[in-house]
Every structure is written in structure tokens, then in C-alpha cells.
Amino acid sequence: MDYVAWLKQHCEKKIVSAEEAVSAIRKGDRVFVGTGCGEPQHLIKAMVQNQNLQDILVYQMLSGTLSEYVDDESFLNRFSLKLFFISPLMRKAVFKGNIDYVPAYLSQIPGFFSSKLIGLDTALIQVSPPDRFGYCSLGISVDITRAGMQNSGTVIAQVNPRMPRTLGDSFVHVDEIDYLVLHEEPLGDYLPGAPEEETVERIGHYVSQLVNDGATLQIGYGHLPHAILGHLGGKNDLGIHTQVITDAFLPLFKKQVITNRKKSLLPGRAVASLCMGSPELYDYLDNNPTFYFAGSDFVNDPTVIAQNDSLISISSALEVDLTGQVCSDSLGYLFYSGIGDQVDFIRASAMSRGGFSIVALPSTAQNGKVSRIVSHLSEGAGVATTRGDVNFVVTEYGIAELRGKSIYQRVMELAQIAHPKFREELIEEAKKHHYIFSDQIAPHQEDLIFLEDYKTSLLLPNGKTIEFRPLLASDEFEFRNFYYSLQSQSIYHRFFYHKQLFSHKSLQQQLANVDYRRNMSIIGLTSEAGRQEIMAIASYAKDSEERAEVAFMVREDFQGQGIGSRMVDILDGIARKNGYKGFLAYVLRENRSMLHILRKRYPQSKATAMGDTVMLEMDF
Length: 620
Known about the structure:
Elements: H1 3-11, H2 18-22, E1 30-33, H3 41-49, E2 56-60, H4 73-78, E3 79-83, H5 91-95, E4 100-101, H6 109-114, E5 122-127, E6 135-137, H7 145-150, E7 154-159, E8 171-173, E9 179-182, H8 197-210, E10 216-219, H9 223-228, E11 239-240, E12 244-245, H10 250-254, E13 270-272, E14 274-275, H11 279-285, E15 291-293, H12 296-299, H13 302-305, E16 311-316, E17 319-321, E18 326-327, E19 330-331, E20 334-335, H14 342-351, E21 356-360, E22 364-365, E23 370-371, E24 373-374, E25 392-395, E26 398-401, H15 407-417, H16 420-432, E27 456-459, E28 465-470, H17 476-485, H18 488-495, H19 504-513, E29 520-528, E30 531-542, E31 547-554, H20 563-577, E32 582-588, H21 592-601, E33 606-610, E34 613-619
Parallel strand pairs: 1-2, 1-5, 2-3, 3-4, 5-7, 7-9, 10-11, 10-16, 12-14, 13-15, 16-21, 17-24, 21-25, 31-32
Antiparallel strand pairs: 6-8, 17-18, 19-20, 22-23, 25-26, 27-28, 28-29, 29-30, 30-31, 32-34, 33-34
């Protein structure tokens, strides 16, 4: 028996036309409308066309169909729109003041309905055809739709055979529905335009460095976070617990990059509450047991999300200030999008064992005219995510890690990933705000993307992995800690005297000398409980046009494991690229380990005794 026959047999009196159904809406009603691509377009149009409806309040999260009417004065005289999130189609109307924005965390909106903080009279929803037991699925729009329906006096459902039957906590029995409108039409689609390709390529590269195999991901709403997914194809056994599924996920499912095997909450299932994409994606979701759809009060609840170990939240922002405050819902006084799921997932990732958050954004806006890393948020801009919540911030110029960092450290981390042409200005503004030292040097005003080629790693005999990369201006604090972690004998071997102080001034001088070409420093980093610390440093500095002076230090507990040799190899390759013919080193006679490493690496080196010191000349 097909679904139409089943409905006529079991609840024929509920089957009405859209015009009849919306006539049940009364003047002054508060009407909830389903979300995004799953909104009941046919019902919405019938409601708008019913001229008897006056003074209607409409609550919706992501709105599409109503964008066709928001410039019509007669529509605005009859309907007031209250949106929890501003879709691109609605921004112009919001900027004009024709729509009211309700800032709220997605996890809390269902509670607003159930507590009657926001009262509802009628719900317009869209469902799949019922099964033989009378259960329809909310399909691609479960999110706040379930709560909106359950807390409305009257429920009107458009039954559309094109709505996929999603599994999980997505089912609605026909007994819960007052009016059934049988109408087939294409679902809404969401095919976002890609951000600038090179920018996405670079941001995706940096994000992929942070995402480990087996992690569970949340991907925020927006073009950039979903474009980043295309750069995670080399990962293994990723899991998904996210608000919205888009077409960007499809290749990762089909290539079995996303398997959900390693998830600690609902293993084997991708958890979501909303889907926005193409007919191909909707077909893939239909009756697919890989997916578990549920309401936002479950999917977005931080205490639920945090049950996923290694939960990584990836979201975007409009601007980030130098202290780490994030604005994601407004351009100054103009409301642009919404708080949405960002705060729910960022806070949950901090509670997740091994979890963390990433806020990714291009470094500039308006075709490069303005920086998105700013000294202070724009006047009127809202703080969606506080400086205390932010962990990693990523632009096409690198990764800034803010968690546990002071304001001084945050300024240096964020200025370093700003567009090069804005870095000096940001540092000067930070000095005016007294965020940093008055003599602080600014990060290099050039694109240092070439430094990515100098990154490498080494697996130690004890199973630990050491990562090597160039020293950056933002490393000053950890640079200082490295020196103070060394034993006095190691300090003596490096500086030829028992140096006891490593002041800001002296470290600034060292950092200022690093130009990444004629003068270079490489650091070795080890990770402990998600925190990186420096355990080795190697440098060369110009001595003559053909030769550079080389030196290196390895923390005592990491010595004898090949780290010094590897760092000399790295510096050798960089020095050759920059025109040097060889190295020069001054080494204390008693520093046998350094002498051994250099002589082994350069067996033809020339040694000259100079009292307690040996001068080595090493040709490449």
C-alpha cells in the first residue's frame, strides 16, 4: 500500500489542502516554521497568500522562502519575522530593520519553547511519508523543529515524498499532527560558493595539521568550514558530531575517511540535526543507518557533545581581536548571521578529553582592504565567543594557539597570523593599549609560507615524536622557558660562561636577528597533554658571504637520541638554499657531544685549537 492510500485509510480527515490548513492560523498567532532546506515551502506560500492572516509572529532558524516577501510592504504589515540565525538571503532585510534577530545558543532554543519563554501557537513543518506504523521523519530538519512542533497547539505538516527518511530521534507519528498537506516539491538546496581557492588551500593545510586520525569533528555553518573538509582527505577514522551536514562531507564518507569507528559517543553513527545540500546528498541520507539525527537540545548540548573524546570544533568568524574575542554574528551594528552552534561546541570541545576548538577565518575582508585580526572589535560588534573560550585561531598565514596564554602572548600569536601588511600596525595598536612591551618587535612583514617546507618531525627511540619548525616571534615566552629549563653546564657549553638571565631584551635581540635566510633558527617541540614546549634549538648566523656560524642545544632529558644531528641536517639544507658554502662552529673542548655530532656530519671538517675552544670549518 502506498503512503497516500495508507493515510486515507488511517487519518483521512486530517488530509487537507494547504489553503485549508493555514486557515487554522488565527490573527495574532505565533507561528513556528521548520528550518532551512527542510522548510515547508508550499505551506509558507499558502500562509503568506492568505490575506485574512494579520499580525502574525513567525519564528524560524534558517529562513529561505520568506526572503521572497521581505521587501513587500503589505507582507511586512501582516507578518513579523523573528529569526534565530540570519541566512544570506535575509541579510539585506535585516540590515534594513525588516527582521528581528533573536540571539541564542542553539542548544537552548528548544528549552525556550518548552518553558513557554517563547510561546508558540502553530507549527508548519515538513515530513517524509509515513511508514506502515504511521511514523514520518522530520528528515533534514530535526534541529529545533521537533521542539517547535511539540510545543505548538496546532501542527500542520507538509508530507513530501522527496523528504529523505533520516534515522535516529527524528520520527513524528501522524497522531501528533493536526493537518496533513500532501504536496511533492523539490527540497531547498544549499550549494555555497567557495571562498578564494588559495586562501582555503592554505587554511585547510594548517587545519589538517591540527586534526589527528580518529578525532570526532564538528564543522560550523558557513562556506569556509565546509571548504576545509576537502583538505582532510588524508585522515583516517574520523567521526562526526555536528549541527549540519552538507555536500562537503560526501567525499569523506564515500572514501571511508569518516568511519565513526573511534567515537566514544554513539560509535558508528554520524550525529547531526540538520542537512543542507543537494539532491545527491539527500538521497545518500535516506534510510542510511550511518546517520543519527536528533534535536538541537541533544546534538548541541555541551554535556552531550563532551562525551566524545578528541572532539574538535571547527568554526569561522567575522573578526578576532588581539585578546582573542570572537565576533561571528554582526558587522558592527549590522546583524549578519547568528550565534548558532559555535559557543555550544567550543565549550564542549574544552570539556572533551583530548578535545579543542579551531576558529578559522581569512586574514582580510573587502578584497584585502581590512584586516580580520583587529586590535579591537568594531564598534557595535557582538562578542559571540569570549577570549576565555578560544583555543586555536587559523588564517592562511598560520596557527595561533591562545589557550592558557597571556594577553602579551596572544597579541604576538595573532599578529603573526594577520596579513603581513597589517602586522606592524597591530603591534603599534597593542603598544598603545599596553598589551605588550613598548620595545616589542613586530612579526616579519612578509608571507612566510615558505617556512612550511622547513617543518619536519623525528620519531625517537622512546616512541615520542619531536616536531621541528622555524623559530617565530611569538615563541619568546617558550624560548625563555627553554633556557631556564637547562642545567648550568649546558648553558656554559652554549655561551662559554654561566649565563643566568634570559631577559625580554636579550631574547628580543635574538629574535630580531632571525631573518629566515642569512640568519636562521630551528626549534624542536614536544607535546605533553596537548601543550607544546621547546626542548631543542639550533641556529646559524652569518659569519661571511660563504659561511655561517652554527650552534645547537638539546635539553638534557632528550640528549643522545639523534635530535642534534637532525637539526644540523635541517640547517644544512636551509643554508645551502641561501647561498652558503659551509658552516663554522666554536666549540668548547669539553663539549664532546657537539664535537662528535659535527665531525660525524662533516668528516672532512678542519679543526683549529684556540685554547679551551676548537674552531671547526665545515664545507657542504
